[in-house]
From TrEMBL:
Cofactor annotation: pantetheine 4'-phosphate
Taxonomic placement: Bacteria, Bacillati, Actinomycetota, Actinomycetes, Micromonosporales
Highest taxon of the lineage: Bacteria
Name of this chain's protein: Amino acid adenylation domain-containing protein
Keywords, comma-separated and alphabetical: Phosphopantetheine, Phosphoprotein
Annotated Gene Ontology cellular component terms: cytosol; enterobactin synthetase complex
Residue span, Carrier domain: 441-515
One Gene Ontology MF term: 2,3-dihydroxybenzoate-serine ligase activity
GO biological process: amino acid activation for nonribosomal peptide biosynthetic process; enterobactin biosynthetic process; lipid biosynthetic process
InterPro entries registered for this protein in UniProt: ACP-like_sf, CAT-like_dom_sf, Condensation_dom, PKS_PP-bd, PP-bd_ACP, Ppantetheine_attach_site
Pfam families given in the database record: Condensation (PF00668), PP-binding (PF00550)
Amino acid sequence: MTGEPGSLVDHVAFRLHGPLDLAALHTAFEDLVARHEPLRSRLIRQGEIPMLVSGSTPVDVSVTDLTGQGIAAATAAATSDLAVPFDLEQGSLARLRLYRLAPDDHVLVLASHHMVTDGVSQGVLLVDLETLYQARREGRPAALAPLRVQYSDFAQWQRGFLAGERLTALTRYWTDRLAQTSGRLLLPLDNPRSARRGGAYLDFTAPTGLADRVATAARQHATTPFVVLLTAFRLLLWRLTAQRDTVVGTPVSARPLAETENMVGYFLNMVVLRGTADPDASLRDLIATEHASAMSAYAHQDLPFEQLVTQLRPPREMGSTPLVQTVFSVEGQPGMSGSYLGASCEEIVLTGGRAQYDLMVKVVRDVELTARWDFDDAIIDATRITEWARQFWALVDAVTSDPDRRVRDIPGLGDVPPDPSQDDRATVEVLAWAGTADRVEPQGYLQETIAAAWQSLLGVSPGAHDALFDLGGHSLTVAQLSFRLSDTFRAHVGVAELFEYQTVAAQAEYVERLLLERAAQLSPDEREQLLDGQP
């Protein structure tokens, strides 16, 4: 429910058939922003440290009349609007967009910046917005209990919680658990990596009855459906890469306090699951091993993923995320459908986002299993994803059939080549990561200055066409970069623009435009100094 992977905008989108009270909806959204502090936050500067502070910001609501133009026009307009970056320095960090197709036919999009919401938060926002909307329509107070704490209170508590011996123990656990691995997954690629990612998704439904068999297997092995499905996914990765030792990320909602249940904020953390596919082990043993590994990882999930990456400093490659390139998750229910705001409702998927990872597989457990495969279509073709999905369901079938079967006896797994040796692995990585050697060094004063700022913040030397987020950057990195470049060039280098221009070369072109605009207002001598790189 949180939009395209890698997007800086989390969103939910619905088509609503039925009457809407637009005035009540607008006022209800104002109430929603007033209720949840992160939605009315903005970025301020304290030295070089970016801080989100709450305050009063304009509420961002718009209605676009597309009467008679059809659903395709609405989804195109909504996708285009989602591509517009938030202004972190001015707010607001939430938007409500309504696209009218007919008097009783609308597309509603609720969007927020990914720094201030996660999937659970989106659910909270939807429930609260509907409650506030009905209250406004009926002219009565909303039946929402006041929030006892806000996200800033939780953040302060977390800083104290993740300190001292606890932080030391968590860091030691993950350092030991992930020793001797770069996390690099050698998936076969169809195209060389480049600085800019693509983004696409495909949905696949499991064969009839597989959902019940997964649930039965989970009970028999005293584990969860997630572990059963993860075991099959681990075997798929072994088949695809010949790597027995693989790393997979899984997102968790880190809300340890009861007070956070109805709170809006970014609580999501990525837990790293390392596992081994032993061809001589039985499926029973493999499931037990995955269960033990997952339970241990969950018990140590409080260390933020960004801190883990900073601590481990894994190799970074153009077009690839550090440590985790593949994400696997399981959800217990499908997306929202039925009714919303008093109208019949169907969820809409808006595409066009940029994949954050090479591959993200999300299995939804309902009457039958469905799986959404989000992938970087700049490097992996849809036909390959379709084949991987077929193999995955076949492995789920195998894992839930005969627990005493050896892994190597499963069709398609007996002929997996040996795990590459260290020397062979280096060769395989060069082939699998083709294109990463096509590095272009930063050239000229602007590119070199911006690259130096990146290196200071990320601890890695970027090429001219490397993308900031592919090298481990995140939202606060962009804010720090904005402050640093603004000081260097004595011009306002905007956060929103740095989100839009994500490579060294693109940011250099943007800064050059800023300097030329500034130069037009200077004397000839001042202009010459500025353009010679003496801001």
